[in-house]
């Protein structure tokens, strides 16, 4: 049975050449069938099966092959270039087996002493990798960045309401740029912030779409004049649209002036800051009140090599695009490059955004590769993202 499960997994992973499953690798299925993703008629037998008796595992695996695999996007395919994939490593796979086998519920020290101690050691290591000087931090381990932001917003809200009274919650204001991930707005709604008190501050191409400290200051001044309370400012290290980096120093000083909580969303590019050549993007982090990073614990040397390989691959891709006059390339940030087809009235008259949407649809419909897009400053562009296998 374990062998059958491995065969299902290995069929969609970027396996090394020495793998016994090389024959399967040579015949990888398409990344996905576009029409099935949009209109996949999930098998009614699966939906309706909530039987009283357990179903044999062999039968469940058969359902997976027939009804699940045809309708999923294969994130582990070597032809997957969309979103921000995190290809599973062999080490990670074995770690999950060990973790599941031990099945420890380490919710406090007494329930599992060594896991709690290990957590503290790992956080201290992250502290050393990311910051120039060791600082004393309070931390929480969250499954996803959204969970971390929800907790940070809730803690900030409760602290503020103790000072201005509970009935003033409708007066609290949250600030972000129009490039900030939508998860912040969702989190703000979850913890009770009024949508009318959510300030998406417009950025411009002249500043590489980074958040302007002066614009933030003006927005806060306006809200104060209207009897509102500036509470929370979220800045980003590496947006998911174009890899935009906000200035921690400039925005940190604004936050200090107005007593606003400054949170840094470094979910995408924060982990890359363990590389000395990228570390400067965290300059000014000492002015911030909280930061969320998706850390990875593979050993700093190997992880740095892995991150640099990602950047080099995308640099190569960027260079290939630059040699083709049909494409316009957005300058690379980290391991992310945006590009789009240029307008050519002699060949087509449709608007450029429509043309690039059609290009993306053609690529994805082929099933030979999967890509995603972003809209930055009103410009529709395709994303080129490549992560190598650890």
From TrEMBL:
What cofactor does its activity depend on? pyridoxal 5'-phosphate
User: Which InterPro entries would you find in this protein's record?
Assistant: Aromatic_deC, PyrdxlP-dep_de-COase, PyrdxlP-dep_Trfase, PyrdxlP-dep_Trfase_major, PyrdxlP-dep_Trfase_small
BP GO annotations:
amino acid metabolic process; carboxylic acid metabolic process
List-wise, which residues carry N6-(pyridoxal phosphate)lysine? 297
Gene Ontology MF terms in the entry: pyridoxal phosphate binding; tyrosine decarboxylase activity
Q: Name any one Pfam family assigned in the record.
A: Pyridoxal_deC
Q: What EC number(s) is this enzyme filed under?
A: 4.1.1.25
| Keyword tags | Decarboxylase, Lyase, Pyridoxal phosphate
Q: Which SUPFAM superfamilies match?
A: PLP-dependent transferases
One GO term of the cellular component aspect? cytoplasm
Its family remark reads: Belongs to the group II decarboxylase family.
What this protein is called in its record is tyrosine decarboxylase
Q: What is the lineage of its organism?
A: Eukaryota, Viridiplantae, Streptophyta, Embryophyta, Tracheophyta
